[in-house]
Amino acid sequence: MPHSLRKLDVSPGVVLWPGCLEPAAQTALIEDVLVRVRDAPFYRPRMPRSGRPFSVEETNFGTLGWYSDEAGYRYQACHPRTRCRWPPMPESLIALWSTLTNHPALPECCLVNLYRGDARMGLHQDRDEAALDAPVLSISLGDDAIFRIGGTTRQSPPRRFTLRSGDAIVFGGIARLAYHGIDRVIANSCSLVPGGGRINLTLRRVSPV
Ligand code: MD6
Ligand code: FE
Hints:
The protein has 2 helices and 13 strands. The protein is an alpha+beta fold. It binds N-[(3-hydroxypyridin-2-yl)carbonyl]glycine and fe (iii) ion.
């Protein structure tokens, strides 16, 4: 169960639950994540065409995982290196999805982003899902991050706010295709992630029902 259901409407379609997970729930969740990472280790995705490596490391849980390399962005059922299916999504995340999104279909993908050092995430849209009617749920663990969100064109003026460990945000409706990114992570602002840094979990529904 979420710790706090205090919610802030950041902009149309974007809802933030600051401190949604209490410290004990954050610790339990990071443990659930790290056990699964033993079977599905972090890797560095590459940009379509150029093959330039991302600064974030990623892995996935669930029936489908988001992956990127020279051939493009896509969802696939297996880890690119182990060739095994992704580990199952932690039950606590599926429960949180139902509570916070109210979406009737279950999430299929939990993308795990690991930010170490000066990793960041450029401005992008989440648009590889056929089920664009479903929102995206994002949970932050570890160091604080400066999140930037604009509108549906790269030119729309962005808003910035800090995402802290335990915060949850949901993007849906007219914000589902909003451009967003992580400008930077504030090193050592939180000690939750072993070895330091930030882990972000984004849950998505991929297939139409
Ligand atoms: C991150 N988040 O917080 C990256 N995408 O590390 C995302 O890319 C994101 O937070 C869609 C919806 C919410 C998000
Ligand atoms: Fe995103």
